[in-house]
Recover the amino acids of this structure.
């Protein structure tokens, strides 16, 4: 019983770590690259404008899609690893 | 065949398809009605979420908004997609594991409080009703433009179709019609975009075309667009925005608002497993992304097309943009599509200096040295998508497709919202509070009756929109962000937040947000009752009322935490409930108890 409990706790900790990592990337591409850091990235040209503009119009959406699939894939691994899958 | 006949054919065929699906997917139990039986495949669900999510506003208005604002308006693109990351990581899998039918039900159980559940019901109904009025009104307008009936008749036809498949099939009927509607709307959106991208850049993929060279001038498309619009006194399309705080908060409000909207969350209850909830969020964003990656391309290309239609000298290679910008076309030589859309009032022309030419420029710029006495052409933002096929000279069946697509976008979102409202009434209000002993058959009947009433109310308000209907972004997203999202997240990620904390958090976040909105937009949106003019100089720290939901959410989190900390821990069984939603094992289907 104690093992089961610590196993579940370890699973939850791993999940929260994974979520934190993903949300850092999420914030970095949208609030970072597309808005706050755009002036810093203005030296990198992309199709007639700069990288920050690309992140605002496309890059962040593409990253979001990648993030969700990465998280879903990684969580499936964690579910199995900790024996908590359905 | 006339354009009218083609439009009737496309819209009629799509409606026949939706009704056919409704008959096939009739709901036999409350489980069918609320969660489509709980066996929807994650890809199917992703597609249904796409249609559920993308409203008349995404389909018709978003590209126009981006075209008008350029870089200043990507908040909509990021805000309305970034919320899915929050859903997938923070809410959807756990709420699916919880395995009940509605969002207020989770709040009520987790915070062991009927009050909390009722506050959630009220927030849900206000947010969803505001949202659905816009959809119904949008459907009416689409009808009147493409099918030559008046808007009220159009609205009634739309209501009858929605009535048919949502009352009969509930979530089950809505799921499969939404899949069909997604396919209709995405085809309708992308076909004209592909043609316009080919014409302007030679690249058949609009998102790539956006960052390619403009064929006629050899310059990058966006560089070309910047030159054209600045020569006419507009801000550069890709110009930086100074008020970054407001931009960040606006994007954040839209993101957490998206994640907190019950009609979207509910769709995640329909998949068989917790893992499927995660996958379907990913698929949803793929399907939504197809439109959201196309929209900014449509925006910039349509804007360039519009400018060079009025100023043909600017179309090809240009030596001197300022010189080219002095020579607009004569009103008598305007293209046919301008004539067509003038009839709808969405494009208007007023020859202020009586020279017979169309001076189209930023009205706040001073071009009096050119003999111009003000901007003469007013173009409604919605034109860019609606008139896209005509601007790009596409065959008339594409226009029929746009009509069917716009209606699909409006109806699919309306149905999802109506289901959220009716299940809150039949499941949370009637079964949860008024008559807990209601039978399964009785509840199904109650669900159908409340759905019918919700449709009647939405139809009436769609025909006679109250002042608040125009405030979807402020009201629906503000409420979802400030009240629902924080308590849902705390309910999962904290075992310590208790009933008192949740109620205090929801009420303070909600009150703060609504008061801030009312101060600038009028109390209960009654014109003239605002305390301060809704202009950037009056906003606290430059934060617009549309962006305040994010601040409301922070207040909700802080109050809930402090109040919980200073009162007793939640009971043992509630802490166990929180544990159980965290682990996928043993989810089973969504159940009714």
């Amino acid at each position: 019983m104690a093992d089961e409990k610590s196993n579940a706790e370890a699973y939850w900790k791993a999940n929260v770590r994974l979520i934190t990592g993903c949300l850092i990337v999420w914030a970095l591409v949208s609030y970072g690259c597309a808005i706050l850091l755009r002036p810093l990235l203005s030296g990198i040209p992309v199709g007639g404008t700069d990288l920050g503009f690309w992140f605002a119009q496309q890059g962040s959406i593409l990253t979001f899609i990648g993030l969700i699939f990465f998280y879903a894939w990684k969580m499936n691994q964690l579910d199995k690893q900790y024996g908590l899958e359905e | 065949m006339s354009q009218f006949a083609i439009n009737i054919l496309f819209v009629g065929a799509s409606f026949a398809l939706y009704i056919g699906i409704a008959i096939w997917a009739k709901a036999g139990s409350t489980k069918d009605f609320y969660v489509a039986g709980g066996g929807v495949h994650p890809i199917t669900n992703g597609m249904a979420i796409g249609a559920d999510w993308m409203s008349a506003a995404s389909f018709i208005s978003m590209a126009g908004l981006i075209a008008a604002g350029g870089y200043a308006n990507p908040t909509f693109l990021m805000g309305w997609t970034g919320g899915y990351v929050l859903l997938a990581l923070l809410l959807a899998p756990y709420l699916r594991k919880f395995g009940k039918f509605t969002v207020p039900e989770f709040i009520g159980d987790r915070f062991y409080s009927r009050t909390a559940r009722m506050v959630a019901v009220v927030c849900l109904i206000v947010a969803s009703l505001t949202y659905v009025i816009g959809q119904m009104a949008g459907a009416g307008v689409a009808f009147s433009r493409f099918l030559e009936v008046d808007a009220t008749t159009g609205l009634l036809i739309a209501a009858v179709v929605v009535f048919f498949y949502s009352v009969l099939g509930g979530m089950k009927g809505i799921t499969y019609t939404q899949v069909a509607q997604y396919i209709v709307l995405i085809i309708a959106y992308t076909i004209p975009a592909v043609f316009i991208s080919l014409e302007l850049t030679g690249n058949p993929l609009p998102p790539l075309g956006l960052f390619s060279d403009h064929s006629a001038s050899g310059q990058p498309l966006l560089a070309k667009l910047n030159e054209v619009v600045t020569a006419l006194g507009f801000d550069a399309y890709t110009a930086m925005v100074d008020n970054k705080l407001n931009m960040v908060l606006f994007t954040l409000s839209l993101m957490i608002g998206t994640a907190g909207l019950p009609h979207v969350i509910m769709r995640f209850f329909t998949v068989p497993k917790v893992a499927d909830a995660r996958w379907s969020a990913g698929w949803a964003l793929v399907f939504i992304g197809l439109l959201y990656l196309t929209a900014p391309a449509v925006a910039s290309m349509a804007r360039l097309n519009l400018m060079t239609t009025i100023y043909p000298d600017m179309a090809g290679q240009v030596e001197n943009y300022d010189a080219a910008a002095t020579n607009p076309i004569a009103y008598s030589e305007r293209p046919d599509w301008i004539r067509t859309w003038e009839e709808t009032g969405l494009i208007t022309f007023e020859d202020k200096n009586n020279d017979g030419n169309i001076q189209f420029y930023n009205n706040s710029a001073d071009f009096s040295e050119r003999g111009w006495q003000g901007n003469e052409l007013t173009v409604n933002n919605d034109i860019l998508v609606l008139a896209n096929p005509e601007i790009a000279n596409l065959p008339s069946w594409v226009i029929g497709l746009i009509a069917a697509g716009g209606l699909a976008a409006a109806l699919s979102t309306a149905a999802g919202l109506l289901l959220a409202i009716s299940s809150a009434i039949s499941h949370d209000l009637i079964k949860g509070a008024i008559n807990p002993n209601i039978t399964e058959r009785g509840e199904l009947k109650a669900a159908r009756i409340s759905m019918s009433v919700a449709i009647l109310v939405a139809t009436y308000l769609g025909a006679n929109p109250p002042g608040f209907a125009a405030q979807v972004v402020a009201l629906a997203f503000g409420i979802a962000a400030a009240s629902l999202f924080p308590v849902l997240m705390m309910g999962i990620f904290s075992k310590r937040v208790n009933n008192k904390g949740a109620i205090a958090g929801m009420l303070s976040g909600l009150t703060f947000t609504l008061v801030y909105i009312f101060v600038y937009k009028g109390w209960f949106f009654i014109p003239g009752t605002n305390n301060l003019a809704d202009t950037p100089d009056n906003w606290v720290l430059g934060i617009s009322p549309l962006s305040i939901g994010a601040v409301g959410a922070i207040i909700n989190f802080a109050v809930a935490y402090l109040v919980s900390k200073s009162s007793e821990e939640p009971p043992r069984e509630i802490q166990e409930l929180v544990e159980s939603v965290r682990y996928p094992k043993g989810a089973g289907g969504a159940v009714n108890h």
